[in-house]
Amino acid sequence: MAVMLTVDEIGARVLAYNREADLDLVARAYRFAEGAHRGQLRHSGEPYFSHPLAVVEILLGLELDVPTLCAALLHDTVEDTPTSLNDLRHRFGSEVASLVDGVTKVELLAEATPSEKRATNLGKIVSAMVGDIRVALIKVADRLHNMRTLAAMGAAKQARIAAETRDLYVPIAMGLGLGAIYPELAELSYQVLHREEYDEICACFDYAHERVRARGESFAGELLQRLAPRFPGARVECRPCFAHEVARIQRSLGEPIERLAHILRVTVIVEHDDDCYPVLGILHALRPPILDRFKDYIATPRSNQYRALHSRLRGARGCTIRVRILSVAMDQVARRGVTYQWAYKRGADEPPAAFARRMQWLHELQEAQKAMLTSDEFVEMARDTLASDRIHPVTPRGDVLNLPRGATLLDFACAIHTDLAYHCAGGRVDGRRVERDHVLRTGDQVEILTEAMIEPAPSWLTFVRTPHARRLLREQMRSRQRERTIAIGRDRLRAIPALAGVADGARASCPAAQAAARRLGLANVDALLARLGAGRLSMGELRAAMGEQGGEEKVGEAAAACLLLGEANTRLYHLAHCCHPLAGDDVIAFFSQRDGIIVHRRICHHAVRRAVDVDEVVPVRWQSEAALGGQVGMVVEMRNEPGALATVCSRIGEQGGNILCTRTLGVGHRFGSAHFDLEVRNLNHLVRLLDALRGETVVVSAERV
User: Fold this and answer.
1) Which conformational region is residue 626 in: left (phi greater than 0), alpha (psi within -120 to 50 degrees), or beta?
2) What is the pTM of this model?
3) Which domains, ranges and CATH numbers included, belong to the chain?
């Protein structure tokens, strides 16, 4: 049976760290919750009120404020008793009621997949934390006590709750820096989800426990003797590894569990931050360090602002000693995380800078929510965001960025400025040229290179890692797509006879277009153009909205209504890859919602098939002297004699053609043929090139394909 805190015990512990606490509010919340849960039992058979008291006891260890403790006492009253939020608001104030509302258990979607459940729960927790971080603290404490008493549940429910704890609550507790809580959460979930491994590890540890304990006491005593002259206030704590830590190390190193049972964890706590580095020197003099296993989290703190020195030492008889060195203040941050420098407790209007840095991960999760990710992507992104393993590349000005492991050059660009992100052409890492998808490492000196003509492409989303980068790129691509659809819609207005005589700049804002937008129930002409350009409004519907009855267009009107194909308008259309039209070809264009305006040669079989749908046809004509350059296919039949292919290639080059690719189609005794993919300026250029080839004695025929 659990030992339940009394209201006096709670009051005494609160006064120990907050002499101005409103103990009357705590007492009223205690009595109300006790009465509301009277007669209710947990699955274990214990009084239900023992659960909120256990949650309060956990939060007392974090020295939380009175409203948080009251909300912890009351957090299940709304869901499990007739009490309403209005009752709580009337009795205890809006602050306590708001916290209780935030921690009300999340209802799982009955038909959702496991990943959707996790994403939904995580999303709601993130949204609640944005409003008040104390919601997360209560939720984590609530989950810790539920995990401690999980044995009373059925096996299936144990597995589900343990998996949710591992995937959601452990990362959140890590993000909050709650070193006093997240290791226990991770251990309890591992115990349920990997029972056989857990039992095997515990058996090995029980066998080695006395030897490890003896070695730990011997090492601690020896170390304290060395530290005492210079650091009389230093403390040394020793403990074996948690089972889930051993399993992670075993997967990483491939060592047998029996050997890992001898790993010793040592924590050295000194009075001042400046004492940490000298103590490291003493440790390395006492036991030889393992190379490449030193981590300086003082110079580069983790994303939750955890600071310490980590090192590994070689102990006696193959024992590995994993050492952490912290100051007293660093140890408080490591244990209590976000609560140590908490703005609420200090009565400040704004959180201190350290608090804001510690909550950077929460802002990254907000970005992930805005980035329109799938459920699986959101959960994976949250896991990456909350991971303690981060990288710290450096800008040319010496600023250090904090990014998740696996972040790329483009993530770096997005973290600095949108102009760098949208026009990123690659970069330099330590002076070496790299591509956008280059994965960065801690200490990399990174410079972003840009080109004004470059724009974000969908492929960029396949290699960025941060939610912020995904959101920025998606927003920019949506914005650019809307600009393009409006431009396409504006040019499609050329096909409306009533607007054919209106100047280009005034066509979209003329009274006829504005009246059509109103008749279609659209906010403005831009909305009409976007619909027209995206294919959600047909030309027939637009003509009807403008009151047109059809009829023959005049020649001048038809010419004015054509989209000009030239260098100035290349962003409004695409040249079809099936027939590769060149400037000067007889062409026809079609509009589709997916591809926009596509230009074909009239003899293209795709164009012949689509021409029956007159509403898709977009009138186009080539701009005078258009020389856009384009790709074209050509088959040359030539005599099978030495130097024939060289002669053909030489003639193509002399005529200004650029050979992209060539392949042999067939070689006979007297003749052979080859296919060329060329770049030429326009149709006239191609005709001159073909005429030049046909004039060569080795060429039998040369034809465009």
Assistant:
1) beta
2) 0.62
3) 7-193 (1.10.3210.10), 196-339 (3.30.460.10), 562-628 (no CATH), 630-704 (3.30.70.260)
